[in-house]
Structures
1.
Amino acid sequence: MKHRLLRVNELLKRELSALIVREMEFENLLVTVNQVDVTPDLKTAHVYISVLGGNGHTNVIAELEEARAMLQHDLSKQVILKYTPHLIFHLDDSIERGSRVLEIMQEIETPEDEPDSL
């Protein structure tokens, strides 16, 4: 059963990503599906979304919530399961945090006030 859930998670992630790209438009934002966790009864799917660029992070989740019925309907046509899972969207800022950590590390590695030794 564990392997089936993993396969369903990956399938939903791939199909949702394609649906979001095809059906929705986010101006100046890169919206990606990082992870999908389906409950064991396959009735609920927690969808973790990352947003890069701009400051409209909360707007993206609100737009996805508004489009939930359409996304679930389209998903039911693409993925044949006994139940089409109820989608719950979560903002995943791990990529943004990771990129910020890398920026800080680069700042530490290249000291700005080092005198030239000639």
Note: Residues 15 and 53 are 23 Å apart (CA to CA).
2.
Amino acid sequence: MDTNQALAAFSTLSQKTRLRVFRLLVEYGPAGSPVGKLSTSLQIPHNTLSFHLSHMSHAGLVLSRREGRSVIYSANFEFF
């Protein structure tokens, strides 16, 4: 990991909601979780959660994939 990647990751995780989301994704492991389940578990509205997941994705901290109509997010364990 280079310095710029580390700075982006730390900057992204310095926000309380994003840190909560990331910690939960780490608990779910590589399988990840659908956005709806994350939203319900953390009691965060879908649009707010999408905003935070977008920031985390741009920083390389999370990965997303489609399964049918659902978007599954997982922590990017290869980032570290």
Note: The chain has one domain: 3-75.
3.
Amino acid sequence: MTATASRISEIGLVIIPSVDQDRSIEFYVQALGFEKRTDMPFGGSYRWVEVYPPNGTTGIALAPPREGGPTGIQTGISLTTDDIDVTHAQLHSSGVDVDAEVSRMGEPIPPMFWFRDPDGNTLMVVQQQ
């Protein structure tokens, strides 16, 4: 297979299903400290919501699942922190459904843990190297 040049320059958004967007906004803003940057109606009865980490350029769109579509998915989203233990403790004390402990597999894999949002979607937090 031959490599071709692409005009794709960055990841702008990842989309995860949210059954109750207000509940999801509260979780991502209050528990995780994200910023809600977009919240507007679209497509008739739908609503488009985007949340971002305070310094982030890639956001998460909290979109209603397609009819019959899944929620509670393994998102593949990895968030970074400069102190995994403090972040784990803060989220745990805030009532976030976090793993019981930080996973430490040894070099070169950084310390990490998973958490679940109110819809059961799983995201990962990884300590920056």
Note: The CA atoms of residues 60 and 71 lie 15 Å apart.
4.
Amino acid sequence: MENKLSVVAAAPDVEPVQAPVRPVVSQPARAPKTAPTPEPDLRLVIEEGQAGSFVYKTIDRRTGEVILQLPREEVLRMRDTDAYSAGAVIATQA
């Protein structure tokens, strides 16, 4: 059987070297690169109604369809009747 020993040489006494200390300069944070956002398909239209009130409509640009309208069409029709009074839409008592 063969004896395989490695020879370790003694290291001479060496003094540690200190690297110069440099101040840490932080880099400004960069926003992650994202793909450009496509143009929204919705559009807000504000129409002046009767007596200075406004009607807000969200419209699909491609189809022209009204997605949301505030106040709703039902409320506008109620407002046109003679029996309508402000607050009549909300039931405040149980």
Note: The first helix runs from residue 73 to 80.
